[in-house]
DNA sequence: CTGTTAGCGCCTTCAG
DNA sequence: CTGAAGGCGCTAACAG
């Protein structure tokens, strides 16, 4: 089933078939009709490998991300896919399991079969990033801003988000908070930490505890967080927060009366359980959409867009409250 | 950067390069060394489009699934990806949003750029399935067994899983249960319903309520489920169950004292909240692994494997208990 | 506006 | 065991 078969069926040359199918040039309507009919009758579909070879492009964009099981990414992916489809492209996604070495391989692999790449929350260091970008393949960074890198970037404004959290806690009277830190190699985690450190200027004492990005991590870290003596537990994301929350409850700790807990990302995990998490929201849909658009622009017009930051919004819900004054738990809810 | 460039660098013909790279034929070790070195120095990577065109295959398998946001699928995907990588293939996934029409398009699209397809929980009807399989592309069905279809299938044994649930409830004294039904077009849902109906032979009265597959669906259906007067709420999956559970608690209903709730799939959502869900477990990893292997077999040897059913296991946890005898809630926990 | 011609980069017969 | 030659299906530059 080739373009030639369609050609004979429509009594035209293969080129003409190609032209009507791609709209590359004006074709006599009569011939075009014959072609369309033949295509329909034969159920012809262009061979993508042949097209790719001839055109030098695949009609596919690649997405690399650390973990598909994180509810964060399906939302982003849906938006990216929508944009890609609107531009007539497929999407190929690969997950790295948070491993920088794997990331390198995946990107190399994706470059072989995609016209452009979206690197979501890459964990690799700046040098590796520079190396990869140097290959000249269009790629845009998502949730990672790397200064001086020849690739457009778009990210949620983690720093501002965490600042909102700190402000909220400060106003509730919290002066000592503990932060359950995300993956060490995560730039996004670094931004959160920076914002926390900045909050110390306002008289807030911050303890950083290595933790992780999953519910399990939060669950395991909760006791240590409690022991730190902080009145509020700030977390890398909602998953960690929920894990911690569960553990605290099991230990009979009253949240938010005895201790406040804050999430990050608004994964809307709050369907579960009675209390819903105070957190900051991420515009995941917009993030995916704009990232897709930036990549498309980069691929088609070589447009190197300015780095963009997307704002987060504070969502005060049930897990934060005024700090308890002494040893007794008599604080009021926020 | 073509195979010819490598050839000149290694002072051999392109054919020789191809042969050492693919292990297609015996090559003088000295030449092979030169080739490897040249490849390394030039950083050469075969053009996939050219390979695909010449070989007539893409080195890619396609996966179609209804919804990436369902935590069920990332687990399956990880296993599929692992198998695919072990066989030197990439994975391309597309989600249909539970829409049979979209499914048709996606499969058609995937057939154009993949050597084989995994159709996960397809919602399309049998006729459409037959049509698609008729195209002669290797495909295996996951979580859908369709009799007389010329495609291998593998599925979790939903019927047996639901039977375990019914038995468990019956032994706790439940005689009236309500089922929050999944997507109408879901074969897996049909299997669950069949098992429920079979349970009626044991004196169990079953009411089926249309619901859906998401937490939101469960949340919204909970009041209706309660009104049905049943003593136990059986659900399409853990997501629905959690949604219902949350709503019941908000209404002050004591689970499991006043009503029992059972999930399905063991999505391990139980990190959240105080009570963990009684449910049946799905071997998602094994499902993905075996599906991948079946597809590989089908692609390489045309092996048409027997349909396989994977067993589920009952996990009795905190949300089921003995039926309350009258109006008072004095049941004990299971 | 249409058909003919020459590759895209690789694999795979076929000679040697 | 190696090189040369043809073709995979399509597009694009070239004549007509």
UniProtKB/TrEMBL annotation, chains A, B:
Superkingdom of the organism of origin: Bacteria
PROSITE patterns, per database record: HTH_LACI_2
Gene3D superfamilies: 3.40.50.2300, lambda repressor-like DNA-binding domains (1.10.260.40)
GO molecular-function terms, A-Z: DNA binding
InterPro entries assigned: HTH_LacI, Lambda_DNA-bd_dom_sf, Peripla_BP/Lac1_sug-bd_dom, Peripla_BP_I
Family annotation (SUPFAM superfamilies): lambda repressor-like DNA-binding domains (SSF47413), Periplasmic binding protein-like I (SSF53822)
Chain ranges of the HTH lacI-type domain: 1-55
Keywords: DNA-binding, Transcription, Transcription regulation
Name listed for the protein in its UniProt record: LacI family DNA-binding transcriptional regulator
């Amino acid at each position: 089933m080739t373009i030639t078969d369609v050609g004979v069926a429509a009594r035209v040359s293969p080129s003409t078939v190609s032209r009507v199918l791609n709209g590359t040039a004006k074709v006599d309507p009569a011939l075009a009709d014959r072609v369309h009919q033949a295509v329909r009758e034969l159920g012809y579909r262009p061979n993508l490998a042949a097209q790719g070879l001839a055109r030098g492009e695949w009609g596919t964009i690649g997405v690399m991300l650390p973990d598909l099981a994180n509810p964060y990414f399906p939302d982003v992916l849906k938006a990216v896919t929508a944009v890609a489809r609107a531009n007539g492209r497929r999407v190929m996604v690969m997950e790295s399991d948070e491993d920088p070495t794997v990331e390198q391989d995946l990107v190399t692999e994706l470059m072989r079969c995609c016209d452009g790449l979206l690197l979501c929350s890459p964990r690799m260091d700046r040098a590796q990033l520079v190396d990869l970008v140097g290959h000249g393949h269009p790629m845009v960074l998502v949730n990672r801003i790397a200064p001086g890198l020849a690739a457009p970037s778009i990210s949620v404004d983690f720093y501002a988000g965490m600042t909102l959290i700190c402000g909220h806690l400060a106003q509730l009277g919290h002066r000592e908070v503990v932060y359950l830190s995300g993956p060490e190699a995560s730039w996004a985690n670094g931004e959160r930490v920076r914002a926390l450190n900045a909050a110390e200027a306002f008289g807030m004492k911050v303890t950083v505890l290595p933790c992780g990005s999953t519910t399990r991590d939060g669950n395991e870290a909760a006791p240590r967080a409690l022991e730190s003596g902080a009145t509020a537990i700030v977390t890398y994301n909602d998953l960690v927060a929920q894990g911690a929350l569960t553990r605290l409850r099991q230990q009979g700790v009253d949240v938010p009366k005895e201790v406040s807990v804050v999430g990050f990302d608004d994964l809307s995990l709050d369907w579960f359980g009675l209390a819903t998490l105070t957190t900051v929201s991420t515009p995941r849909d917009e993030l995916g959409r704009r990232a897709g658009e930036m990549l498309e622009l980069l691929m088609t017009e070589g447009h190197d867009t300015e780095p963009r930051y997307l704002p987060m919004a504070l969502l005060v819900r049930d897990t934060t409250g005024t700090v308890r004054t002494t040893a007794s738990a008599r604080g009021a809810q926020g």
